[in-house]
Fold these 2 entries.
Entry 1:
Amino acid sequence: LLEALMDQAAIAVERFDLAEEMGQTRLAAETERLRSALLASLSHDLKTPLASILGASTSLRQFGHLFDRADRDDLAATIEEEARRLTRFVGNLLDMTRIDSGAIVIERTPVDMGEVIATALQATKSVLEGHRTALAMEEGLPFLASDAVLLEQVLVNLIENAAKYTPAGTLITIDAGHDAAGMVLRVLDEGPGIPAGAEETVFEKFQRFRARDHRLAGTGLGLAICRGFVEALGGTITAGSRPDRPGAVFTIRFPAPLLLPAILEQAAG
Ligand code: ADP
């Protein structure tokens, strides 16, 4: 984690130096402001779960003998949950660092989108408890020249958000299809949707809306990572509100040359 932080700081410093060299002092000042904001946000995101872990473990050690079994289990569960949150956060930071430094490793193989979606749904099973899901896959959808692991991570992020930001009992739909332009994957929900004007900013690092409710814990990195991965794979990702009813829709597109029939034709010709 420290390394990731150092990397982020080093990148900021590099930019700072570069900007100064170019005599663009305003850019340098802005970079410096961003760096401070980034460090403040990182420190906050680290301190909150650490404080919970410290509180719970201290209670257990000092007063554990006074508690009954259920209370001890509660404290242990808090420690576990907060440690998992930290682990996720560190994973996110590392992914973000890889994206920023252009060091994402892509293993391109023919990817069956049906399998990727099934794996992502399996991985989000516990988050999806309390929601309904629907899958609409085009029959005979061509394979995509892509990286199944990265794609799965993108879908997991989108599905987790769809579960996190929408009321229990609502429907989350995943659909996949293709046309002459390429392949289209969508995750649709029935929550409040994306605030008008925030369709682009939701993809920025550490941008969070409606996140004052602390139960909706997050890092504000999920969508930035989704965009980083999708773009590294040659696609685009956009966010919006559903036109027909309340809800958010995230749309991923991959251009036709990445569809497998196109690749086979190219190889034949
Ligand atoms: P995080 O979930 O950690 O806050 P993300 O980058 O995944 O970070 O999302 C950024 C912000 O976009 C969220 O804080 C939330 O306000 C908004 N958002 C993401 N997904 C949805 C969704 N399905 N419906 C409504 N708002 C969403």
Entry 2:
Amino acid sequence: MSKALEGIKVLDFTHVQSGPTCTQLLAWFGADVIKVERPGVGDATRGQLQDIPDVDSLYFTMLNHNKRSITLDSKNPKGKEVLWRLIKECDVLVENFAPGALARMGLTWEKIHETNPRMILASVKGFGPGRYEDCKVYENVAQCAGGSASTTGFRDGIPMVTGAQIGDSGTGLHLALGIVTALFHRTHSGLGQKVDCAMQDGVLNLCRVKLRDQQRLAHGPLKEYSQFGEGVPFGDATPRAGNDSGGGQPGRILKCKGWEHDPNAYIYFITQGPVWEPICDIIGEPGWKTDPAYATPKARLPHLNEIFTRIEAWTMKHDKFEAMDILNKYDIPCGPILSMKEIAEDPALRATGTVVEVDHPTRGKHLTVGNPIKLSASPTEVARAPLLGEHTEEILRDVLGYNESEIGEIANSGAIGAVQKIAAE
Ligand code: COA
């Protein structure tokens, strides 16, 4: 079976998380992703959070599957020459350098577009044009500036960041969509274009329900927030809502059997209107089916704390999986709080390729997250991340057409550093 993006060459000038997430998606879909890294150094994440000395970190290996690595000093004259040859050869250049860094390398959009009019230049920056456009930005900065932190956590606590990397991986995902859209546009325009995604904007896009609530506030309190039932007045900005659900159906995280010693013995429970009657039967409150104070979703809003306390008295008698089994029989929406350990061991996630084991020449076998997007005609085969510069010679020869003496000349110039040889796998 052919891969969906087979034939597309990506000059991957990304590092850390946001850009690599984007190019990893393109690589999973079959694009030839050529990761350009600084000789001797590479992507900074290779050495960050290392669990095994001198072995590429899981941070790096889990964000750079299915790519090839070439080391190239983009500030060395010979390196620049190779880089321009790559620009002529590739379809997409993806980068997430600090603002201005690409231009300082001499790679302006005008020059790139003139050299290869079909090339798409895709960039992640922390902020779009405006007062913060020159800032360097990491994940949590984007979560804070994009509206996530101010709306996450509990009302009586400080703003919270979430563990999901919505600033980095979320923006990479947005950028990948921009790239394939620009590739589609190119099929009829014949031209490449610039694709920009700011991390603040990507986070805000994922937080749009909170901007929805901001505007609803002008017309009265947010009745589905627990705060309403507790009689706490609303201020002038969307408040933090704890574990309330983001939609109109009240939901909470409730304790399950074992919560005293297991930090993840919890279930998310949604009191969806259409299944109110079975909920009442299960928790032993059949009277609430007809009692006017509980019978309708609107009537229940001021009593949510009492209702969830009663439901929790029931969930605490069951472990989270037992509770799921019972509630699912009645289509009551709920979800177990799964630990990373449970996810890593989940046979269903292994079977679908969402959790995959890969082998690596220096690290050995390790788990990674595979492609969550499943295409029926072009399934993803997850391949390990490359070693630093592992494919330098191969790319110079096979992609750029340099002969052996030219490759020697490039090596002597210092543009590619020491080329890494790996033992046969
Ligand atoms: N050869 C030579 N120089 C190279 C090179 C190569 N192959 N690859 C990178 N460099 C140079 C760059 O040109 C830059 O030099 P300059 O400052 O002289 O222009 C330098 O390396 C550092 O790049 P920079 O992007 O500034 O890295 P940083 O480690 O200082 O900052 C970030 C990291 C992530 C904060 C920054 O890149 C950034 O804000 N990126 C955009 C937002 C983003 O993606 N953030 C999320 C990261 S997950």
